[in-house]
Amino acid sequence: MTSSAPATPEEELRDDSKKRRYKMITLPTESVESYRPGGLHPIDIGDRLKGDQYRVLRKLGYGSYSTAWLARDERNHRYVALKVIAAAPTSVQRELKVYDRLRKAKQSNGSSLRVPDLLDRFEHQGPNGRHQCVCFEVLGPSVATLMNNYTDMYGYDNRKSACPVWLARSIIKQLLQGVHAIHEQNLAHGDLQPGNILTVLDNIDTVSEEDTTKPEPPIWAGWHTPLPLPSRVEAEQDCLLTSPTDAKKDFALPEALLSSDAAREHPSDGGTSLASDSRVIIEEPPNDDHTNDSNALVEEADEDDPDEPRLTAPVIRCDGQQDNSAPRYLYLEQPLTSFAKFEPGVTFKISDFGAAMRAPELVFNFPFDQRSDIWSFGCLTFEILTMTKLFNIFTFGPLCLDQSDDDHLVQMHCVLGSMPGPQNTGWVRRGRYIGPDEEVIRTNVEDGDVPENGEMYKERPLDQYFREERIDGISDEEATQILAFLRRCLQYGPDDRATAADLLKDPWMQSI
Predict the structure, then answer these.
(1) 220: DSSP letter
(2) In 10 A of CB 438, how many CB atoms?
(3) pTM for the whole thing?
(4) 357 SS3 class
(5) 14 CB contacts (<8 Å, ≥6 apart)?
(6) pLDDT, tens digit, for every residue of 122-181?
(7) Rounded distance, CA 295 to CA 312, Å?
(8) CB 342 within 8 Å of CB 146
(9) How far apart are CA 264 and CA 165, in angstroms?
(10) Radius of gyration of the chain from Cα atoms?
(11) Beta pairing partners, 58
(12) What is the rounded distance in angstroms from the CA atom of residue 442 to the CA atom of residue 445?
């Protein structure tokens, strides 16, 4: 390759393949075009930040505006989860203020808030700008990873017999306790979804660096090492922690972490987190001028076997030249799956405050607050107890945002029934889908007429949907309790939803 001083890349990538600076990467990673001025900071394994204090060991995950890495804190002799945020202004300052506020609340009253401990924060100057960097305690794989692993091991058709019901109940109860604690601080979380519920790891700082840097191929690669799951013995009494106080408090509107416009622009309909497996081919990374002092190895595909999984993808400019805006490789996320133990006593924490899962008020561009968390919590409860999403919405691909909104609203109508006045008024295309007698007349949201003699697919009402999809171990009597619990969460009107404090006193929640 020849090297040159490339033209400054555009801060926003246009929807035009001719504008691409780098060859397309098809592996599930952050977009390589995100590495530009104002965008992500290029990181390679072995890089050091904040002087020599933090040494990067392993990629844990990524988002639209950040990447997350396992790093070694050389000064304090511990591991940290290092989150490096894009250089362009984002909501990071508000998120950091939230963590600071929760940390102070935890220190003052000793309460368990079920959020990651904020350990350090600093700024780092890179080729794409100045980046906020945040260090948290190291947590394990997410509930999304757990659910993907169950589904992959047992198959989608057998998923109902996969997840132990005691574990599902434990996740839900701990999540509600965490939401209640956050709301008591007059805050809203804003992004309750499986990818943001993370496993607490025991004694991770005692694990050798050699073990923490062992590559683990992703679940989609086709080889499957199951998560260390518990036996399916009912063990609720061992795994549930004491509930927070049930003293009723007056409901107060919280500080919004993002505007409803931002939440609408970047809707979060469920996290994607890949579990880890067992098989890998290791090669040394190419020897070039980029400093890399880590002992961790970089995995590459076997050229003789294109079906072998890869954990990295080389970053190559379309013109064959080089620049320092992007890293040498994009790395697949590697959650610390092998260090998690899903057994009685396992605990979870809620991470990544952000844009709320799409409650009705967000679809209609109304303000959101704590009550939007309750809607998201209801959707998440359904998903954990059925291994199925309550609403399946696509916010990418050929559908525009208006069509995705229509698809979501039609599904809500089918599952939960007719919407009250304010929502009906806000749904400007309602007459295209709902008839004068509140019947669904169309579910196809794409342009054009419904094909003649075409069978219209409609999602099932909530009661039928849950009873048919519930995981094994939920009796008819418990299903009735759960459905009543879900309806308290999934009210169209935010004022009609129960608070987290009230839900903790719900008969079903008190019974588990």
Answers:
(1) G
(2) 11
(3) 0.73
(4) coil
(5) none
(6) 999 999 999 999 999 999 988 888 888 776 666 666 777 778 899 999 999 999 999 998
(7) 16
(8) yes
(9) 34
(10) 23
(11) 70
(12) 8
